[in-house]
């Protein structure tokens, strides 16, 4: 796990097996000041382990999880399925943003089964996507 | 004129007996008795009471069987015979008709035993009528079907269904199975079934042809399925490839942009140039991949047809695509357009492609002019869009609608060469055609046709509802 900290922004977990995409996402997250801290995972299993281990430690939990859909072995939807079985306080605490290379209507429908999904973003992340997401989050929090 | 006794004898039966009288006896004498049969087949007796200007006046006498036997004695004939004589001439004509009919015609009693066959049974199935008379109708039926066919006719008998048609197989004299279509009319006497009158049409060729057609249809369907599968696989492949290409492409362009923005000022001039070419190339591939994805999508998505107002559709597109500022030189003329039943979303895409092409290729002209029109031909609505733009050389016409094929260089007009293949795919999915006419430097006209269909057109049933008995 790598961590980068910043004075403002959200605590973010990034789950993406594609190195280039993850690098760009991380860079954009930092550059846009969206994130104060980035926990980076290349596999959904490891991310899930981390969440389970820290299910009582709110300080260690991310506020937003950026989750890639298409990953080998445990994919984004498998992750969501398992994530449901973790205690509901974490689920309410951690919101999920789905990352995908193109928005497929089937994926959108599939994601509707799970609560707490904020939106779908096309990866690699772009600055403007993060800026508008930030605005939406601030608006809902007020 | 005549007195009629006994309610069973109508005027018709009177005429019948008069006819029989002249034929049967040759001359009229008052007091002569003769047998008659009315339309229901009841036997009676008539007496000539007097002659009036050579026209015999008859008294029809209702008879008990005993008196009838006596009448037979007087006439010196058996009742059956006397009736035969009386009816001979008239029957002769009907008999000729029946004997010479193209179909096998036979009559059975109520038990189903044959008691009459016309001569066709000989020519078509090789049987001598004499050898079949008295046998049961099931003796001709293909053994494995007997049970079902017999049950069918028993039902007709029980429920007194006046007429039925059914298809089954019989065995001819040579032992060959032949398909027949049999019409069976109940021979009723009051409320009692006396027998069956049957017309048999040989449909062996028809059934053979039908089965051949069914076989060919099945083959065609399986080929069609193969083709559809191949097409779907290809589409899926296209989709996956374009899909998977998209993400790394965006990666490259984003990385190049980061490099350009954050380290651009530190780079030597040549490196800056190289970097900007990387960015342009990636954008180009990216557009191409997007177009390919679109191309694959229009082949796969399900179509929903509705009545579409072409006028409204085009007005909307023109409003979106043609700039409305005073700088705009392009004039778009839209004729009266007929509505059409089609998939609105897909045909929208067709027009977007055509109209943006027309705008793009005529943009360099002094007075760009686009005209959109429509005519009706061969049960198809033909729509066209004409521009006075760059046009094209008809020598390269074949390349016009192909994927990735372009007739202009990137320097002249940008594009990926996918737009018109998308158009072609959409129109062909609607059962229509696309074609074009071009003249370099003068302009181009693009046409597409859509078959006129009605939304509530229901498929017609393919066959009559006749029970077919298979073994």
> Mind telling me the CATH class of chain A?
Alpha Beta
The tally of beta strands of chain A, per DSSP, is 5
Lateral arrangement of strands in the main beta sheet of chain B: 6-5-9-8-7
CATH topology name of the largest domain in chain B: Heat Shock Protein 90
Structural class of chain A: alpha/beta
Low-confidence runs of at least 5 consecutive residues of chain B: 1-26, 458-463
Global geometry of chain A: globular
Q: Per CATH, which architecture of the largest domain in chain B?
A: 2-Layer Sandwich
> What is the third-level CATH name, the topology of chain A?
Rossmann fold
Mean pLDDT of chain B: 80
Strand content of chain A: 15-25%
Major beta sheet of chain B, specifics?
5 strands, antiparallel
What gap, in angstroms, lies between the N and C termini of chain B?
62 Å
User: Rg of chain A, please?
Assistant: 14 Å
Find the count of extended strands of chain B (DSSP E, 2+ residues): 16
Largest sheet strand order of chain A:
2-1-3-4-5
What value does the average pLDDT of chain A take? 84
Q: Would you spell out the secondary-structure blueprint of this structure?
A:
The complex is a heterodimer of chains A (142) and B (471).
Chain A: E1 10-15, H1 19-31, E2 35-41, H2 44-53, E3 64-68, H3 76-85, H4 88-93, E4 95-100, H5 105-111, E5 117-122, H6 127-141
Parallel strand pairs in A: 1-2, 1-3, 3-4, 4-5
Chain B: E1 3-4, H1 11-25, E2 33-37, E3 43-52, E4 55-61, H2 65-75, H3 79-99, E5 104-109, E6 114-117, H4 120-125, H5 129-132, H6 146-159, E7 163-171, E8 177-189, E9 192-202, H7 204-263, H8 269-300, E10 305-308, H9 310-321, E11 331-334, E12 340-343, H10 344-362, E13 369-377, E14 380-387, H11 419-429, E15 434-439, E16 443-451
Parallel strand pairs in B: 1-4, 11-13
Antiparallel strand pairs in B: 2-3, 3-4, 5-6, 5-9, 7-8, 8-9, 10-12, 13-14, 14-16, 15-16
């Amino acid at each position: 796990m790598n961590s980068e900290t910043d004075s403002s922004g959200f605590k973010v977990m990034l789950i993406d097996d594609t190195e280039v995409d993850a690098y760009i996402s991380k860079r954009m997250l930092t550059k846009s000041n969206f994130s104060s801290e980035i926990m980076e995972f290349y596999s959904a299993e490891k991310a899930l382990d981390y969440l389970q281990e820290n299910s009582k430690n709110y300080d260690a939990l991310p506020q937003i999880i950026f989750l890639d859909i298409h990953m080998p072995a445990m994919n984004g939807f498998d992750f969501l399925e398992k994530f449901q079985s973790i205690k509901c306080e974490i689920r309410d605490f951690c919101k999920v943003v789905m990352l995908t290379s193109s928005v497929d209507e089937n994926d959108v429908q599939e994601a509707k089964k799970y609560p707490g999904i904020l939106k779908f973003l096309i990866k690699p992340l772009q600055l403007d996507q993060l800026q508008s997401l930030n605005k939406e989050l601030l608006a809902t929090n007020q | 004129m005549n007195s009629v006794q006994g309610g069973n004898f109508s005027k018709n039966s009177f005429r019948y007996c008069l006819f029989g009288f002249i034929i049967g006896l040759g001359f009229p004498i008052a007091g002569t008795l003769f047998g008659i049969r009315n339309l229901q087949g009841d036997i009676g007796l008539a007496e000539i009471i007097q002659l009036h200007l050579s026209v015999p006046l008859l008294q029809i006498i209702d008879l008990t069987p005993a008196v009838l036997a006596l009448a037979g004695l007087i006439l010196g004939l058996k009742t059956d015979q006397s009736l035969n004589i009386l009816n001979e001439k008239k029957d002769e004509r009907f008999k000729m008709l029946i004997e010479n009919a193209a179909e096998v015609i036979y009559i059975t009693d109520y038990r189903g035993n044959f008691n009459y066959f016309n001569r066709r049974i000989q020519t078509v199935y090789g049987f001598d009528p004499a050898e079949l008379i008295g046998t049961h109708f099931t003796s001709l039926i293909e053994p494995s079907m007997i049970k079902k066919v017999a049950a069918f006719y028993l039902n007709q008998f029980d429920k007194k269904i006046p007429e039925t048609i059914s298809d089954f197989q019989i065995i001819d004299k040579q032992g060959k199975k032949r398909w027949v279509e049999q019409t069976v009319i109940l021979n009723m006497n009051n409320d009692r079934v006396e027998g069956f009158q049957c017309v048999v049409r040989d449909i062996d060729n028809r059934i053979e042809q039908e089965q051949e057609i069914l076989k060919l249809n099945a083959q065609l369907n399986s080929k069609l399925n193969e083709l559809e599968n191949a097409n779907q696989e290809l589409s899926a492949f296209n989709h996956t490839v374009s899909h998977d290409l998209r993400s790394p492409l965006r990666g490259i362009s984003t990385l190049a942009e980061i490099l350009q923005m954050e380290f651009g000022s530190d780079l030597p001039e040549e490196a800056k140039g190289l970097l900007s070419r990387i960015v342009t190339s990636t954008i180009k591939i990216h557009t191409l991949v997007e177009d390919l994805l679109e191309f694959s999508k229009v082949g796969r998505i399900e179509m929903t047809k509705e009545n579409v107002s072409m006028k409204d559709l085009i007005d909307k597109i023109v409003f979106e695509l043609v700039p409305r500022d005073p700088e705009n030189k392009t004039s778009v003329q839209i004729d009266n357009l007929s509505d059409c039943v089609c998939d609105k979303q897909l045909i929208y895409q067709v027009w977007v492609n055509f109209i943006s092409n027309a705008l793009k290729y005529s943009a360099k002209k002094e007075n760009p002019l686009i005209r959109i029109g429509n005519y009706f031909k061969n049960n198809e609505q033909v729509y066209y869009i004409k521009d006075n733009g760059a046009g094209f050389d008809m020598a390269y016409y074949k390349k016009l609608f192909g994927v990735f094929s372009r007739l202009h260089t990137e320097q002249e007009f940008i594009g990926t060469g996918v737009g018109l293949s998308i158009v072609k795919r959409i129109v062909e999915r609607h059962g229509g055609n696309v074609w074009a006419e071009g003249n370099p430097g003068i302009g181009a006209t693009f046409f597409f046709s859509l078959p006129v269909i009605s939304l509530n057109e229901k498929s017609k049933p393919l066959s009559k509802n006749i029970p077919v008995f298979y073994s």
